[in-house]
């Protein structure tokens, strides 16, 4: 029997791919473990302007001196003294430059620091740390370390909201004291679309109008009785899952089809009731939110499983605040508002990274570089690679799906579903989450994805609020406008350009993800899209970041005689 669609973690409630192989990753821990060996630190970490001038004056002498010392293999001598010569050219040199401060980037940076590689630089285009973990706090701050542990604050997470229970990341955050507001002994399995325990509201047309165009006064909205809702779920949704399973078997292992395409076949062959058809349409809209891709883009092999999670967007926590607190030990290594524009890896021994900060272009040199920007940024070509990325890498980037899912944040059960008739507004703002019991204040979150989300991002806040309130008023006639409305627009954010990756029809996502993860010379790649079966999750981003750090450490050790001898 086919499992129900999984819950998103990166932006909503997805679980990991139940078919993920143990070969997808090296053994990882994501732990803040103490260094197992004594490491020799770099001599030029955080070089100041004064040090650069000194190196410029004495660079040749320092270079000759370091060569002489290295020949003697004296372990007490700083292993990177030879880097001083590069300062004379005006370019600071690092052991590692990391692009991005999402979970992949900060996990990799902390792993390097734990192994005493502290001559690193982390470049972040945004003005906050955390990437797609973005928390807007009650005081207006975004991703504030001080708000993690502040139980008077009400966080609103515009990106990731759920944390895997029993994961390495959970253990790491517990040990770091970052989950004090969460009772980690209590775990919950999140529902998936459509939600069996959700109240369903059914809209029907009172009178027909031209070409599927209707307005609020032509619609009748009523809550379905629980037994009718349960029947819809078990009969229509359960029947669809069985249909998909049989359809997959008929195609064979190496033939794919679209999620939406199979749904259309199911409606044509199996459904006769308009309500049944509307229910499947709702399920497709909810699945788009879950996976951030359009129903006709999603592979029928998208379906995964559910996992136990913790809700992070509660007072004293917040996913973005947690990311910033987790990265606090790296603060002096991070440059915010620093947008990387080019990565030149033409020299097999060094990588030149060009970035713009406050309108000023700068270049740095590194022995290794790690790229953790979103798949959307890679797809857009916003970072120039010199030479161009190999064809196998570019093909994987181009072939992977990267979707858009947004939220509109403003007593019944937690999840609320609206079954709408066919029309121009069908499927828009039909899934809502009520986190009031977690936050202690009235709040509602609406979800929209795929083409509907792309269109929404062209609207004004007032237009979005009007559309959302129209759906809510249909279900709750006495509802009043919110005191405040916060809307995400991830697809329009130039440093992200979407939410998370998904399995696109006709592609082997796991193969593409592995290709994305592979190094090109001394350039590594990490992030949720490079996480194999853990795509679309914070946990996957963390795992891929640590895997990259391990590879970088091996290269740094091999290139440093003193480190190799330790």
UniProtKB/TrEMBL annotation:
Root EC class: oxidoreductase
Family matches, as InterPro entries: Amino_oxidase (IPR002937), FAD/NAD-bd_sf (IPR036188), Flavin_amine_oxidase (IPR001613), Flavin_monoamine_oxidase (IPR050281)
Binding site for FAD: 124-125, 340
GO molecular function: oxidoreductase activity
Family of this protein: Belongs to the flavin monoamine oxidase family.
Residues that span the membrane, as ranges: 48-70
E.C. code: 1.4.3.-
Name of this protein: Amine oxidase
The keyword Iron appears for this protein: no
Gene3D superfamilies reported for this sequence: 3.90.660.10, FAD/NAD(P)-binding domain
Keyword set includes Zinc-finger: no
């Amino acid at each position: 029997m086919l499992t129900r669609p999984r819950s998103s973690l990166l932006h909503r409630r997805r679980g990991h791919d139940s078919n993920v192989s143990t070969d997808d990753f090296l053994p990882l821990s994501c732990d803040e473990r103490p260094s197992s060996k004594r490491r020799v630190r770099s001599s030029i970490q955080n070089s100041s302007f004064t040090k650069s001038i000194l190196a410029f004056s004495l660079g040749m002498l320092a270079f000759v001196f370091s060569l002489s010392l290295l020949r003697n293999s004296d372990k007490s001598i700083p292993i990177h003294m030879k880097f001083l010569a590069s300062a004379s050219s005006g370019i600071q040199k690092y052991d590692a430059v990391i692009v991005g401060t999402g979970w992949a980037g900060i996990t990799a940076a902390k792993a390097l620091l734990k192994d005493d590689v502290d001559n690193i630089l982390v470049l972040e285009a945004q003005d906050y740390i955390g990437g797609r973990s973005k928390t807007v706090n009650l005081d207006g701050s975004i991703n504030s370390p001080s708000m993690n542990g502040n139980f008077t604050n009400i966080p609103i997470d515009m990106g990731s909201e759920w944390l895997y229970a029993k994961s390495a990341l959970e253990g790491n955050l517990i040990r770091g004291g970052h989950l004090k507001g969460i009772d980690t002994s209590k775990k919950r399995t999140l529902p998936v679309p459509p939600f069996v325990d959700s109240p369903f509201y059914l809209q029907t047309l009172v009178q027909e109008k031209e070409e599927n165009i209707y307005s609020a006064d032509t619609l009748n909205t009523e809550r379905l009785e629980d037994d009718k809702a349960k029947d819809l779920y078990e009969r229509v949704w359960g029947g669809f899952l069985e249909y998909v399973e049989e359809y997959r078997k008929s195609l064979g292992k190496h033939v794919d089809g679209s999620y939406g395409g199979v749904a259309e076949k199911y409606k044509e062959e199996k459904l006769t009731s308009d309500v049944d058809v509307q229910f499947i349409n709702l399920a497709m809209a909810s699945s788009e939110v879950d996976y951030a891709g359009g129903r006709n883009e999603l592979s029928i092999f998208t379906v995964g499983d559910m996992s136990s999670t913790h809700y992070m967007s509660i007072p004293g926590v917040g996913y973005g605040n947690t990311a910033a607190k987790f990265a606090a030990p790296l603060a002096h290594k991070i440059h915010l508002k620093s947008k990387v524009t080019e990565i030149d890896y033409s020299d097999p021994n060094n990588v030149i990274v060009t970035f713009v900060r406050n309108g000023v272009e700068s270049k740095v040199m590194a022995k290794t570089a790690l790229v953790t920007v979103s798949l959307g940024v890679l797809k857009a070509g916003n970072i120039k690679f010199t030479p161009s990325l190999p064809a196998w890498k570019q093909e994987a980037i181009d072939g992977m799906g990267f979707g858009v899912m947004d939220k509109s944040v403003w007593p019944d059960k937690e999840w609320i579903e609206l079954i709408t008739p066919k029309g121009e507004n069908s499927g828009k703002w039909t899934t809502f989450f009520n986190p009031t019991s977690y936050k202690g204040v009235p709040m509602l979150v609406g979800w929209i994805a795929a083409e509907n989300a792309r269109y929404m991002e062209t609207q004004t806040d007032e237009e979005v609020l009007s559309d959302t309130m129209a759906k809510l008023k249909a279900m709750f006639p006495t509802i009043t406008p919110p005191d405040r409305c916060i809307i995400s627009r991830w697809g329009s954010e130039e440093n992200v350009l979407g939410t998370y990756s998904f399995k696109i029809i006709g592609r082997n996502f796991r193969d593409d993800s592995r290709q994305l993860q592979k190094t090109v010379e001394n350039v590594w790649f990490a992030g949720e899209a490079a996480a194999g079966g853990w795509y679309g999750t914070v946990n996957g981003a963390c795992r891929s970041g640590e895997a990259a750090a391990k590879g970088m450490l091996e290269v740094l050790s091999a290139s440093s005689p003193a480190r190799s001898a330790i």
